[in-house]
Structure formats: structure tokens, C-alpha cells
């Protein structure tokens, strides 16, 4: 009997319903089983919130505004994507904030860290060009071309560029994770969240941080090496030395 006939369909439908019913998850029928299921779900939810709670307790007291940020010699700006080779609006807001910190004398050097894993995609150079157009001298901008994620950027800032103290610049939904990761890398870090309209992208970023916090906690626990470590870079030291020379000459 062929399945396409009415009789074949009538016989096939009960079998299909049985397969669907067998595949459907079954809830416990006893009170003890139901109680165990509720407790298991509560434990999973609590475990999911642990990384976010860790970020709040570790970093919340170190979030500042451009007005009350402590004076540090270096600002670290994290990449946030390019649009047609230029900084995305969110990245532009981060760079505007860093330029304001420089102009107000809060920082002397800006370390821009981002992705340059492809020839046609160069976050650090786009960030440098944008900052230069906002009044930050090119000699005060240092580029990290292997800041593939926040953890890599923090570890490389400390181990490769020798940054011990810094003001970190990012969006408000991301800045606590940046502070926590940079502090775990051995840096005395404060953070400034760039001003942004709370649009759909902002809320998406906030929701994404719940999952990113879990990865951040694992990075802190296991301390993996960045994707690319490489040799020590003197850029920050040289930029700071140049700034001190210029200050001495002006005096």
C-alpha cells in the first residue's frame, strides 16, 4: 500500500503521532520528581547569574565619567567594529570620549586596541585616524593590532605594552567586563562608559554581556594566552617619553 493514498495516510498518522509523543520530554509525575526539577532549574539560573554578579562586585566601584575619572597616563580604547572602513557609531563614541580625556589632561597617551586579522579590516588604523581628526596628536596614539577580544586586549596592554595603570573606554554595558579583565591581568584600571542612545543595539549589547561574563570568568580562572602574544612593544613607553620631553621643552 502506497503512503500517498488515503488509506496509507490513515495508517501512517498514528505512527507519526506516537513518534512525536515519544520524543517529547516528559515532566516528572511525582511530587519528589517535580521538586527536584524545580530545584535543578533554580540552580542553573543561579549559576548563570554568578558571572554577572562577579562583574558588579569587581568593577562597579571603578566606573567613572569623563569628569571624575582619575588622571592616568594611558587610556585604552577597545574596538567596536567598522562601517565601510570607518568607526561604527559606537566606536566613534568611545573615541570621542578618549579624545575628551586627552584634551582635559586626564591622559597623555591613547592605546587603541582592535582587530586587524584581515588585510581589508583594520580597526586600529581607523581608530588612529579618527582620533587624529579630533585633536589627539599622532605621536600620542599607540596601536595594538591583535586586540581580537577584550581579554586579549587587556593581557596585551599589560604584558606587551607595559601598561600598569589606565583609564579604559568602552560602552556602559561593556565597561565592567573590561575593568574586571584588565584588573585580572594585573592593571590598576578604571573605566569610563561612552554616552549612547539606548537603542536596540544598546539593549542587545547588554543582553550579550550576560553570556560574555561567563567567558570572562573562565578566562580569569584559566588564564589562557591571547590569540597572539608576540614580542614586547615599546610604543606606549616611547609615546610617554615624548610627552615628557615636550613638557620639559615647553618649560
Describe this structure in words.
- Helix content is 54%, strand content 14%.
- The chain has helices spanning 6-23, 31-59, 89-103, 123-133, 150-159, 172-184, 200-222, 235-250, and strands at 63-64, 74-78, 82-83, 86-87, 109-113, 141-144, 165-171, 188-194.
- The strands form two sheets. Strands 1-8-7-2-5-6 form a six-stranded parallel beta sheet, with helices on both faces.
- 34% of the residues are buried.
- Mean pLDDT is 84; it is low at 246-251.
Which key phrases capture this entry?
8 helices, Rossmann fold, 251 residues, 6-stranded parallel sheet, alpha/beta, 54% helix, two-stranded antiparallel ribbon
What's the SSE blueprint?
Blueprint: H1 6-23, H2 31-59, E1 63-64, E2 74-78, E3 82-83, E4 86-87, H3 89-103, E5 109-113, H4 123-133, E6 141-144, H5 150-159, E7 165-171, H6 172-184, E8 188-194, H7 200-222, H8 235-250
Parallel strand pairs: 1-8, 2-5, 2-7, 5-6, 7-8
Antiparallel strand pairs: 3-4
Helix pairs in contact: 2-6, 2-7, 5-6, 6-7
Amino acid at each position: 500500500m502506497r503512503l500517498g493514498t488515503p488509506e496509507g495516510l490513515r495508517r501512517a498518522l498514528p505512527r507519526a503521532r506516537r513518534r512525536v509523543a515519544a520524543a517529547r520530554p516528559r515532566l516528572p509525575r511525582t511530587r519528589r520528581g517535580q521538586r527536584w526539577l524545580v530545584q535543578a532549574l533554580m540552580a542553573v539560573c543561579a549559576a548563570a547569574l554568578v558571572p554577572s554578579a562577579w562583574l558588579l562586585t569587581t568593577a562597579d566601584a571603578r566606573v567613572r565619567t569623563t569628569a571624575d575619572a582619575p588622571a592616568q597616563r594611558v587610556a585604552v580604547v577597545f574596538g567596536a567594529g567598522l562601517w565601510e572602513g570607518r568607526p561604527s557609531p559606537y566606536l566613534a563614541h568611545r573615541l570621542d570620549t578618549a579624545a575628551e580625556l586627552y584634551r582635559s589632561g586626564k591622559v597623555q597617551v591613547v592605546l587603541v586596541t582592535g582587530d586587524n586579522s584581515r588585510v581589508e579590516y583594520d580597526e586600529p588604523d581607523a581608530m588612529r585616524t579618527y582620533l587624529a581628526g579630533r585633536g589627539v596628536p599622532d605621536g600620542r596614539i599607540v596601536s595594538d593590532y591583535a586586540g581580537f577580544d577584550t581579554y586579549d586586549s587587556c593581557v596585551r596592554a599589560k604584558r606587551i605594552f607595559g601598561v600598569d595603570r589606565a583609564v579604559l573606554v568602552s560602552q556602559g554595558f561593556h565597561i565592567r567586563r573590561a575593568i574586571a579583565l584588565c584588573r585580572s591581568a594585573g592593571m590598576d584600571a578604571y573605566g569610563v562608559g561612552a554616552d549612547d542612545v539606548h537603542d536596540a543595539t544598546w539593549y542587545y549589547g547588554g543582553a550579550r554581556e550576560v553570556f560574555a561574563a561567563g567567558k570572562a570568568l573562565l578566562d580569569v580562572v584559566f588564564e589562557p594566552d591571547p590569540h597572539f602574544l608576540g614580542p614586547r612593544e615599546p610604543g606606549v613607553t616611547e609615546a610617554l617619553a615624548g610627552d615628557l620631553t615636550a613638557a620639559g621643552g615647553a618649560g
